[in-house]
């Protein structure tokens, strides 16, 4: 008998445990267990084996205690930070020889699919301005300082991975979660109003996954902000997840 799936809710960079935990009742109402994983800006600079080693160890123990020695996980990844967390945890589990089965995957406000830290277009200034503006920072000084902090942070991440000739975290997300996991059905929850992960990036991810033969469902929430779809449209958000889960995990 296959073990009950565990929904791993992986939050966005800087999202608190409390904020990320607000998604768990959706899955509890489906009779599923959940675990919450948060994301830190430091994860952008770390290799996958250095991220959430404690979570991976706990999941290894869970798999070892299972009669089938198998772990069934449904990742609900929120923004790029959530993608990075799950990609790292899965990397460690596979490296440890754990049998991991992923029957479905949910993306919320993710992923960046064609733009990475190595390949931001020449309009990066416009992109950062749109991101900061979407945060409704009234003070021009704070707006400018936030813009500068994001620019410095992005350059730092790019330099860190370019220095060792390795793919940056956004590229790894696409490689591992879209390309290598092409057989896993995916639900994309996104918005035309998202300035952090623009809908064009999600559309490209959907097109890429579809071209690889992935079963894809998608919902565009229109005017909801980045990682704010559930907050602003809870009924529609939960209905989309319930329909997707019924389709692929029943």
Automatic annotation (TrEMBL):
GO cellular component, one term: nuclear outer membrane
Record's subcellular location: Nucleus outer membrane
Pfam short name (any one): DUF829
Top-rank taxon, per record: Eukaryota
Annotated keywords: Membrane, Nucleus, Transmembrane, Transmembrane helix
Keyword Transmembrane: yes
Main location class: nucleus
Membrane disposition: Single-pass membrane protein
Keyword match Zinc: no
Xref: SUPFAM superfamilies: alpha/beta-Hydrolases
Family as reported in the entry's similarity comment: Belongs to the TMEM53 family.
Name the record gives this protein: Aste57867_22079 protein
Organism of this sequence: Aphanomyces stellatus
